[in-house]
Amino acid sequence: MSDVLDMLHGIVTIVSPMAGAYESIMDHRDSPYLQQFFQYLTLRADHAIAMGKYWQLAHHRPRDDELVSRHYHTGAGYIQLRDLAKQGLRAFYAALAENYVIFEGNQFVPDTFYTDFDCPE
To answer: What residues make up the domain containing 11?
Structure first.
């Protein structure tokens, strides 16, 4: 999680001096100033999901195996963070502060997560 917040801090530091940029990242959906951050979270999610598939398929483990499940839930956590950030950083920070996001060991996996990412049983 610290890597996510470090990257976000760097982006906020860079764009804050630009006129209107701070308001954009805080309050606007899909702020163009945060596109790199959205891509980063998507790549992290893809990597975590790929690792879950690797451990599941290469080592013949069930989807609910602790190691496999941890990767899938971490991937879902990155997706959840990205979707929150796309609402604007005010929503993102509020969710973090209120513990809406539980990163590793994330219990939130949407009903379509496994089919969306073609994860076997």
So the answer is: 2-116
